[in-house]
Amino acid sequence: MASGSRNPLVVGRVIGDVLDNFENSIPLRVTYGNREVNNGCELKPSQVANQPRASVGGNDMRNFYTLVLVDPDSPSPSNPTFREYLHWLVTDIPATTGVSFGNEVVGYERPRPTSGIHRFVFVLFRQQCRQRVYAPGWRQNFNTREFAELYNLGLPVAAVFFNCQRESGSGGRTFR
């Protein structure tokens, strides 16, 4: 990319709030039903209720990857005291396959933003080797950078994010 300012991860403040600057080097495709996640796209909570399909590119089947999904805007973008909220963690994903071939360390929790527009960020790391990764004790205040450092993952090889906000019910009330 010629200009960093045109990088949607920079424009969306994913680089800065969640990640350090890096270059996408491995294809990562994430879909909810028939909707592909593209940087900055809008998805409704009802569209992301079920675990997405995520597939990892690359050409060396000896490589393994770790995928995390975090919300840096929890509980609200104006007061992100739970930054980052961990929604999903899968390790040992073989190259050229989907996350279903990996090891789900933290199960998928569907996004349920209560106020404001939240960014949900998928981050892919190349692992140095297969390794045991432990689930954090809680989902709030997860730190993608510290996680990558703890498990010696280095910089991400891919990332993509979508925006999501509460769906308004009739008359402003939410019916459950």
UniProtKB/TrEMBL annotation:
Coiled-coil segments: none
InterPro entries for this protein: PEBP, PEBP-like_sf, PEBP_euk, Phosphatidylethanolamine-bd_CS
Q: Which residue ranges run through the membrane? A: none
Q: Which PROSITE patterns match?
A: PBP
So what family is this one in?
Belongs to the phosphatidylethanolamine-binding protein family.
Q: What is this protein called?
A: Protein FLOWERING LOCUS T isoform X1
- Gene source species: Cicer arietinum
Q: Which gene encodes it?
A: FTA1
